[in-house]
Amino acid sequence: MNINFNKDDGLVPVVIQDNRTLQVLMLGYMNEEAFEKTKKENVVTFFSRSKNRLWTKGEESGNFLAVKSIDIDCDQDTILIKVNPVNIVCHTGSFSCFGEKDSKGFLYELEEKISQRIDMKAEESYTYSLYQRGMNKIAQKVGEEAVELVIEAKDNNDLLFKNEAADLLYHFLILLKAKGFSLKEIEEVLLSRNQ
């Protein structure tokens, strides 16, 4: 990895991203020494501009950032480090320096929208009307969508296959809400199997 430390007084910006969720956690700066220490120890070390010294994230709090991967941008003057955070990242007590919102992508936004429609009893909503019909109807709909996906998998129409896959995911999220579970809980089961 060739990083251009010659810009900005020998410092390059470092974006820290959660390895599992891809949520941006913080931004810091590294000089060449901090970068080499980070690579050697697999724990993120920055150059603190306010302390004017190397600073390992978590050295006082214990909230270390375990390095999973390091990438350099196309201009070779910015570093992206994916980490497994030991605990909260921000000194304010938030998980991320960019706030508490756990941004995990569109499926989580969709889950939130489904939950809102059900909780707000949105009468005009298909989601709420299916939810109102009860667990048997929701489970039946998930089963129907699964069968339709299997049928489309045997054919060669990619568009129909993708649409049926989307329908299955959508109805699965309604089923999770009806059962009182979250997508995050299912993700945790998958992650535990991947240890």
How is this structure best described in words?
This protein is of the alpha+beta class and 195 residues long. The strands form two sheets. The protein has a four-stranded mixed beta sheet with strand order 2-1-6-5, with helices on one face. Helix 2 (106-119) crosses helix 5 and helix 4 runs antiparallel to helix 5 (158-179). The chain has helices at 32-41, 106-119, 126-132, 135-154, 158-179, 183-193; strands at 12-18, 24-30, 45-48, 53-56, 65-72, 79-85. It is built from six helices and six strands. The protein folds into two domains: 8-85, Roll (Ubiquitin-like (UB roll)), CATH 3.10.20.810; 106-193, Orthogonal Bundle (Helix Hairpins). It is elongated.
Concise structural overview:
The chain has 195 residues and is an alpha+beta fold. The chain has helices at residues 32-41, 106-119, 126-132, 135-154, 158-179, 183-193; strands spanning 12-18, 24-30, 45-48, 53-56, 65-72, 79-85.
